[in-house]
Amino acid sequence: MKHSIIATTLCVLTCLHARAQDNILSFYLDSLHYNSLGIPAVFDGVWVNDSIKLHLGEDKKPDFRPNPFTAQAPKILQLEFGKWGDDYLFIQRLEQTARSYFYRTAPHLVKYNLDMFPKSLPEMQVIETHPLRGLFKPEIETLANINRISRIQPKDVYWWKIATTSLSFSQASFSENWHKGGENNIMLLSIQNLKFGYNNKSNFEFETEIEAKFGFYSTPKDTIRAFRVNDDLSFLKSKLGYKAYKSFYYSLSMDFRTQLFNNYKTNSRDRSASFLSPANLYFSVGMDYKLSKKKIILSVMPSPFSYRLIYVKDPKVNETVYGIKKGKKIQETFGSRLDGNMTWKCSKQLMWVSRLYYFTSYEKSEADWENTLDFILNRYLSTKFIAHLRYDDGVQRSDDFGYFQVREMLTFGITYRW
Fold first, then answer.
1. Cys staple from 308: which of 45, 109, 152, 333, with CB 3.0 to 4.6 Å?
2. What fold, for 159-417?
3. Sequence spans of domains, the chain
4. DSSP state, residue 52
């Protein structure tokens, strides 16, 4: 029993962190290291003369509690030896001495010897296969052919895109002088929006937005047609910027707007709008300020130099409603323009999208401000409230609203973003 305890103590303690100083090897409890003495004992036929002396600490009891007043862990065992070689040979000799001591004092605990293990590994047998079978084997690179694991470098993402599609029912009301006509109603609204761009994370930035918006509604007061189109807008906006300073970019922008369907006033065959009637084209040069945070994305671009072209293709559309002289199809104007776009994610359930543009030729002015509050119910359902305010002093003045035009809409439906 005594020998078993001493041998087991040697096997355990030689796994502890050892520090040698003045030919005295001390064992500590501050770390563990792998040691061959921790595996089952195997007799290798090597004996070492008995030159080891073992004693415990001064209190004769191992102390496993850490000492908070000293930088080193408490000693639990000391072995005294004579002069040894370098550290590596010293450790090797210590392990061999401990094994020999264990063999002599507790031979009944040594269950294995080297003769029990195979002298060599069995020879590999090659199985011959048909030579054509190798033609149909998949080309798989084995680990033996891989010299090292290649390091994967993530590529910078320069291109980005955001797409939104929605289909909803809505309630709408219009002022009498809304520039494309309209009637208070319940309608079906479809909005398809795509934004994509390029940012090289250095100087250049390019972005494009495409949107198609269609609104169809029943016309109980219209005796000529069963339904009408009261919200028809398709636009393409592109902007190219070169970084000037921090969040400011020298920018060139293009904005093209038109509608696709014919539109009429109630109980009338007179067209108020149709495809490319009107069509608005803007080119602007200015300075673009960009702000991109976690919850808000803002872009404000004042353009002191701007070109505007208004085109009415359809001869059945009254061109004077859009500021074009009677009998003409095109009107070109130079002036200044201001563009503003904001997307503010107020919370997980509420998002505010605002668009503003203002153009002036210093004789006439036109402004368009659209605000959308998107109440997100879940991933697919949402409710939108749209408030649209427009000012145009180039058209005939209304007795009730002057040059202002107002529209509001409340919709509920399906929205999907990807």
1. 333
2. Porin (2.40.160)
3. 2-116, 159-417
4. -
